[in-house]
Amino acid sequence: RPCARHSPTGRARLAAHAWGRRRGIGGRPPAQAPESVANSFVAEASPAPPLGMETVKQYVGEFKELAKKPRSFISQILNLACIVFSALMLWKGLMVCTGSESPVVVVLSGSMEPGFHRGDILFLTMSDEPFHSGDVVVFQIAGRDIPIVHRVMNTHTKADGTVSILTKGDNNQVDDRGLYAHRQLFIGRKEVMGRAQAFLPYVGMITIWLNDYPWLKYILIGSMGFFVIIGRE
After folding, report:
1. Per-residue confidence band for 12, with pLDDT thresholds at 50, 70 and 90
2. Cα–Cα distance measured from residue 61 to residue 67, given in angstroms and rounded to the nearest whole number
3. Which of 86, 111, 160, 175 is catalytic?
């Protein structure tokens, strides 16, 4: 019998079947179709921008929109000014309540270890109560920009009521006469800024970092002001 493959009808059926498989008709689609479709989706997908850049663009857009509204912009500036003046009023209030010109100070060195460490915050008061040996005081020497936090070693009261105070750091080997002004052996009440009443350990390290790296202070203050202006909490 002649083979159907070699007959005209058989050849026509085989050609139609092959054409249908190539086009995905009359049988399973080609095995490479899913992969080619997936590759086309990958090629068409564009990379997403970084999240940080999107956030920056959003904040800049909000600032531009606010700048187009002068009344709202001025209102936010006034809110920022109110925050600054409120902080100043709070500081002045603390000065009045505590009697000290600097109610809160930060320990900048390790001269008072192990009692106080670098970065501790001290809360000061100043009253007419006499000083005693063992009191931790903060004093300012003429010609020095940074106050000193040390402990009272002894005190002397003269007949006219003048008080002479000798101080020393707990971690120092000698007293503070080398830190006083030239030919000054003691400090008086006028040099003392306050007496330590309480402290918070290591909280003041933020202040030390801001002083050691001024650019960080400018970035922090600038970003806080920016967020207040655009109305973010």
Report:
1. low
2. 10
3. 111
